[in-house]
From TrEMBL:
Component of the toroidal 9-1-1 (RAD9-RAD1-HUS1) complex, composed of RAD9A, RAD1 and HUS1. The 9-1-1 complex associates with LIG1, POLB, FEN1, RAD17, HDAC1, RPA1 and RPA2. The 9-1-1 complex associates with the RAD17-RFC complex. HUS1 interacts with POLB, HDAC1, FEN1, PCNA and RAD9B. HUS1 does not interact with RAD17. Interacts with DNAJC7. Its main location: cytoplasm. Pfam families: Hus1. It is found in: Cytoplasm, Cytosol; Nucleus. Keywords: Cytoplasm, DNA damage, Nucleus. The keyword DNA damage applies. GO terms for cellular component: checkpoint clamp complex; cytosol; nucleolus; site of double-strand break. This is Checkpoint protein. Belongs to the HUS1 family.
Length: 283
């Protein structure tokens, strides 16, 4: 089992750092899945018991100038590592002006993801800062727990309003309640609502548009659903705020799927990154 990679391009390094920073804001621990073509950050929370789950997918060729990996075996050419993303984020922060950054899987006192940043130097001798980030190697028998989550059978899919606007609204609502209701329909309308014994507040958005999921043969919304019929989900407002606060991916598309009174499925799409986040409903 081997892994080594190298980033030289500063734009790629900054982009990778933003992705890791986003993941570190969403979870204290996650699984780093390495394949020949992709790098994944996975959080496999049990939605049925109130946990959030996350699936972040990167196309490695768009980030790494060099990338080599050998999985546990020829028929299982993958590596699964449990990692603390905050540790990786801190290491990358010291490498922002680096001429290159190398990452490889090493064996010290324990398995480590070793990051070596070659920093600019006034002398002819380069300075290399090395970080050893402890990881746990996940055995193959547990891999099935960290596979890509299936797209839920949603009732409504809708594009999100500008994220800064949405975050501002959620930040204000958090001061009034611990829970938020998000509702949307197939006419591109979305409402954010809180209701308590003392106050009821609703923010309306319209003309957001609905993603054309059926155009490429993928999942479609039930055709029997009336366009103006709202699907809603009540969620922990802190989990939604955490997601909106943490994201640094700057998505080209941001959307959400609502499974009525069950799941809020948020999706951010960038040219070479996709981030999915599942927040379960609360009663």
């Amino acid at each position: 089992m081997k892994f080594r990679s190298k980033i030289i391009d500063v734009g790629c390094l900054n982009h990778f750092t933003r992705v890791v920073n986003t993941v570190s804001k969403l979870t204290k621990s996650c699984v780093l899945r390495l394949t020949r073509d992709h790098v994944y950050f996975v959080l496999s929370g049990k939605v049925s018991t109130g946990g959030v789950s996350m699936w972040c997918e990167l196309l490695q060729v768009n980030f790494f100038d060099e990338y080599q990996m050998e999985g546990v075996s020829a028929d299982a050419n993958e590596i699964f590592l449990e990692v603390t993303p905050e540790n990786l984020s801190r290491a990358l922060k010291t490498a922002q002006n680096a001429k290159s950054v190398k990452m490889k899987l090493t064996k010290k006192n324990c398995p480590c993801l070793t990051l070596a940043a070659e920093l600019p130097s006034l002398s002819s001798v380069s300075r290399v800062v090395t970080h050893d980030i402890p990881v746990d190697v996940i055995p193959k028998r547990l891999w099935q727990d960290f596979r890509e989550p299936q797209m839920p059978d949603f009732d409504v899919s809708i594009y999100l309003p500008p994220l800064k606007t949405m975050k501002s609204v959620v930040d204000r609502m958090k001061n009034l309640s611990n829970y938020l209701v998000m509702e949307a329909n197939l006419k591109g309308e979305m409402n954010l609502k809180i209701e308590t014994d003392l106050v009821s507040v609703t923010t309306h958005f319209k003309d957001l548009g609905n993603p054309p999921w059926g155009d490429d043969g993928s999942q479609t919304v039930s055709q029997s659903r009336e366009d103006n019929l709202m699907a809603e989900v009540r969620v922990d407002i802190r989990k939604l705020q955490q997601f909106l606060t943490g994201q640094q991916v700057n998505p080209s598309k941001a959307m959400c799927n609502i499974v009525h009174k069950r799941i809020l499925h948020l999706i951010f799409l960038h040219e070479d990154v996709s981030l999915q986040y599942f927040i379960p409903a609360v009663v």
